[in-house]
Amino acid sequence: MDYDKLAELLFPNITKTPEDYEALYPERSLPEGAMVTRMAPSPTGFIHLGNLYGALADERLAHTTGGACFLRIEDTDDKREVEGAVPVLLDTLSYFGITFDEGKTKDGEIGAYGPYTQSQRAEIYQTMVKHLVRQGKAYPCFMTEEEIEEIRKAQAEAKLDPGIYGAYAKHRDLSYEEIEKRIQNGEEYVIRFRSEGDPARYFHAVDAIRGDISMPENVQDVVILKKIGLPTYHFAHVVDDHLMRTTHVVRGEEWMASVPIHVQLFDAMGWERPIFCHNTVLMKIDEETNQKRKLSKRKDPELSLEYYKKLGYFPEAVREYLMTILNSDYEEWRLANPEADYRDFDFSASKMSSSGTLFDLSKLNDVSKDVLAKKSAAQILEFMLSWAEEYHRDIFDLFSANKEKLLKIFDIDRGGEKPRKDLIFAEQIFGFMKYFFDEYFEYQDEWPAEVSAQDRKEILTRYLQGYDPADDNSAWFEKVRAITADLGYAVKPKDYKKNPEQYKGHVGHVSTVIRRAVTGKTNSPDLWTVQQIMGIDMVRSRVEKAMEQ
Length: 549
Ligand code: GLU
Known about the structure:
Layout: H1 3-10, H2 18-24, E1 36-39, H3 49-64, E2 68-71, H4 85-95, E3 102-105, E4 108-110, H5 122-134, E5 138-141, H6 145-157, H7 176-184, E6 190-193, E7 202-207, E8 211-216, E9 223-225, H8 233-243, E10 248-252, H9 259-269, E11 275-279, E12 282-285, E13 292-294, H10 305-311, H11 315-326, H12 330-336, E14 357-358, H13 361-373, H14 377-391, H15 393-401, H16 403-411, H17 426-433, H18 453-466, H19 473-486, H20 493-498, H21 507-519, H22 527-534, H23 536-547
Bound molecules: glutamic acid.
Glutamic acid binds at residues 40-42, 74, 237, 249, 251.
């Protein structure tokens, strides 16, 4: 067979050679040890936590080593493509603070190794396939879907491995004349790689997370170019990661099984293999079975990144949590370096987990509390405003009109040695402080059971009579104590605990009545401060309203 002639028959319009592209995309001049990584999502319209987990690993590996990280859009499968998915993807990634040095951006593409959108790289892939055909390493296959299905059935019956290999690769050795005739007849075809793999032979590849991987060679004649002239993932990944000079391919563990194909393709092209970094899927403990299982798109809303945006998690908190599950010693480092920038952490692929990473929402919430405790009132307000603007117009209007008051609210117990750690995400924060606004006030908790309805009224009546916003915190509390003692409650909780039969309750119960009247809750930040921010009119009307209950 004259393979040059075949290559011309199949790709008459391809005039470039692999060397042309080698020259166009030269080796990057980067310092020793610098990693070039990429995120390569398909625009399916669903960007999830696993994507962000991988993207953060890409970004950190590149940037802690002085390398580069780019974003490539893998849109060669038009069946899976969703209209408008790319802008959503870009917005979501930038929301979570992932920045790329090259690739697709909202204003087009940046970088010298593009195009970074696979559908725009058809000529490059075809050039590389033509090169393989010329060497006798790839061939056209005209088999129809029906023929392939029949083969699959026969293999299943005979309990043989499925696929197009060996004798099942029927068009592996068609003559030039046969191929030409079929093309002239308008028959459609794909291009398959001619595998010379031997299942008894093992190859080795490097995985920076899992160490050495050794697997049997691939025997399948995989499709590398589809009928539409675009490549399959296997071939596109090999061509792109070579020409874009990727050093580390960070991707999901579902691609592990395809490594034999990829290694074979890199070798056939005469290209150096990248170092693979197969990360793990995110797992959770199922609420019902208590078993560890994969996060599922159908069952777990928390898999979607939109979930965190909508609830108003600070992107920094999500990122901080992901860092703790990405690198085993991050948490320890954070404890020792509470103020340090996460970028100062020595991130490495070898510290990534190689078996199911556990994602735990309550742990994320704890991390978020720590992150938010370090924010200033102004930062919290700014974030709450941008969240409300997107998701809750009513809250946005309320907040915009009350910025001064909100700064005071968010400033309660902020700063100092032991800042409050009870703010987690915007929606929760709003629920937490909405009692400051009459429009949103509601009784969230019950009255304390220790206090009778009659005493409650008495406490509130006296409280109202005595309340003076000019009192400082201790003068104010003295008055609460006086009511406590007058009504037969213990001024010191420990006295009540020692002799419960002597008292109706203690000062805590009395102040809970007041707190519940003013805030609707039995738990709140320092009540004196809360009331200072509310102002006398609101305090009065709340207590009066509660007395009617
Ligand atoms: N487009 C592939 C995916 O979304 C990318 C895998 C890779 O990173 O190579 O699964």
